[in-house]
Amino acid sequence: MRRTYLDHNASTPLHPAARAALEHAFSAPLGNPSSPHAEGRRARDLLEGARERVASVLGCRGREVLFTSGGTEAANLGLVGAARARAATGRHLVVTAVEHAAVLEPASALEGEGYAVTRVPPRSDGGVDATTVAAACTPGTTVAAVMLANHETGAVLPVAQVAAAVRPRGVLVLCDACLGPGLLDLRVDRLGVDLMALSGHKFGAPPGIGALFVRRRTKLLPLLRGGPQEERIRGGTENVPGAVALAAALEAVETGRSTRVERLGQLAERLRTGLAALPGVRFLGPTDARLPTTVNVAIDACEGEALLVSLDLAGIAVSTGSACAVGASEASPVLLAMGLSPRVAASTIRLSLGDTSLPDDVDEVLRVLPAIVARLRGLAR
Fold it and tell me: Are residues 22 and 150 located together in one domain of the fold?
């Protein structure tokens, strides 16, 4: 059976450029980049080359890029590291209520350490108003977290506007930009952010590698200690092959970004048009400021999990939300924050497109889904 993969927001296939970078990294003995011998020097050269390539895409200095184990570690390090480093200045944090769990959960953990956290609610369409975020910041606020694009609804958040409003007041801005590469402008000076998290497997690099932009002079307390690596902020031997693959994938998806966005946007519109023909369908997320890859839809009288399983058996991979939340019994915090009832939130599926997506993939979903919906509604009677 041919598989149709429409879950690119969860993870993307390995990009050919990343595969080639991995093969190059392993083409000769690779030592520890902290070792002074030839094998170590080769590893160090590959690592620092990757760092400069990522920095070039972000428009920053190489020393402002730290490699991590992924987006979750990068977001945790940015939020917790900055909050603890600035505890003497203030102990108040602002996060949007639609952030990924990689931000929301460490924020909750910081509450246990005595920090106050304000969670800014979204509009009913999943978007967030910059003025609302700015108004939530007080003289004691040290960090505001605003993601670049939401992983469930595809809503693009006004990061630059928030940064322009709060950074002059001394508030650091952390941006989870994991879904931005190849789709949105990542240049840190245009966004105005102080900290920005990336996750390699969201744009064609292998799992287990991420990056955190840390603006010069921004203080962070380490989460991992045990060595002088990564500017003494993130101890541990670096994942050199992963870093090289991340840099290659990032460059690849950023090349021809406008063409990529146009193609994927057309596929998403084709998908929406077809889904709209089904009765009892409700689209979630903004109608304008959104990723061109993400379609989140609630289907009346159908459980999202049942839709996911039925589509999987038919050879189609979709999601009911964030893959990091699989196994959780609660409804999506993002959808609940938007004001959806638990029943409606449980009836949603997310279809997300990527570089390997084709018109045939969209057509296959539209061919298979009506019969699945009819069967599930029949069972629900």
Answer: yes
Of 232, 254, 276, the position where a domain reaches its end is 254
**Nearest-5° angle of CA 275, CA 276, CA 281?**
85
Same domain, 76 and 117: yes
Instruction: For residue 175, give the H/E element and its range.
Output: strand 172-176
Asked if residue 192 and residue 335 are part of one domain, the reply reads: no
How confident is the prediction along the chain (381 residues), in pLDDT tens digits per residue? 789 999 999 999 999 999 999 999 999 999 999 999 999 999 999 999 999 999 999 999 999 999 999 999 999 999 999 999 999 999 999 999 999 999 999 999 999 999 999 999 999 999 999 999 999 999 999 999 999 999 999 999 999 999 999 999 999 999 999 999 999 999 999 999 999 999 999 999 999 999 999 999 999 999 999 999 999 999 999 999 999 999 999 999 999 899 999 999 999 999 999 999 999 999 999 999 999 999 999 999 999 999 999 999 999 999 996 555 444 456 799 999 999 999 999 999 999 999 999 999 999 999 999 999 999 998 866
Are 69 and 173 contained in the same domain?
A: yes
Identity (one letter) of the amino acid at 123?
A: R
- Total number of domains in the chain: 2
Give the CA distances from residue 366 to residues 186, 311, 360, in Å, rounded to whole numbers and listed in that order. Answer: 33, 11, 10
Question: Within this chain, do residues 272 and 197 fall inside the same structural domain, yes or no?
Answer: no
Together in a domain, 36 and 134:
yes
Give the predicted TM-score (pTM) of the model: 0.95
Q: Tokens in use for 359? A: 């018109």
Where in the sequence numbering do the catalytic residues fall?
324
Residue 51 belongs to domain with CATH number:
3.40.640.10
Q: What distance in Å separates the CA atoms of residue 203 and residue 11, rounded to the nearest whole number?
A: 8
Q: Are residues 44 and 56 in the same domain?
A: yes
Query: Do 316 and 365 touch, CB atoms closer than 8 A?
Result: yes
**Residue range of the domain that includes 57:** 16-254
316 touches 6 (CB < 8 A) = yes
Residue pair 303/345 in contact by the 8 Å Cβ criterion:
no
Summary count for the chain: helices (H), strands (E): 14, 12
